[in-house]
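User: What would this chain look like folded?
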Amino acid sequence: MATTLPSPGPQPAPGGGVTLPPTPEKIQQKFDLSIALTLSTWPALTLAVQNSWGGPLSCEKRDWFAGAVSDLFSSQPEGAIDVEYLEEFLLQVMIDEFEVNVEDDSGAEIASKIVGLRKLTAQGDFGMVDEMLARWKEKQARGGDRVSFQRFQGEEDEEEDEEDSDEGMEEDGDVEMNEAPQLAIAPKEKVIPKVDEEGFTEVVGKKKR
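Assistant: Here's the prediction, encoded as structure tokens.
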């Protein structure tokens, strides 16, 4: 006897009644929240805001940034925004608004997370968004997380190091790199014939072995 699968219609709620699917407004609200929470975990953006690299309104720019990402998805057909496209958008905003050139792979990670959350929220799955919100609230209760950075050696520093190295070589003396050292070649022993008392010729070197 064949098994009849239940219809995928609305399911009864635990307290009775029927659980209705989330409205488009609810889905959009959760997706917008997921964008803001995801951007708050991007160290590059957090660092730019903390140091006001986007100017005195850097915090407001971060909020605008989340809205711009949401508008990007709303302006395109569902599924048209992929990870690569979104990554390019995020990196361009970082350059234009915060004067930060993100050279690591963090932009791709943030883009991938947002695209994944878009799919989940569109299906009415808000579990991950709620978990992210709970973690964000815990961080805020602890005073939030600050991001520090270390200045790496740039091209100008490398050029200065090369100049210092060249000056040190000049002080130690000129080094000729084109002349190869001369090889010492030992001359072969000259062979001298010798006639013994019986008239036989004996061939020996200058030194007897």
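The chain is about 50% helix and 5% strand. If you want, I can go into more detail on any region.
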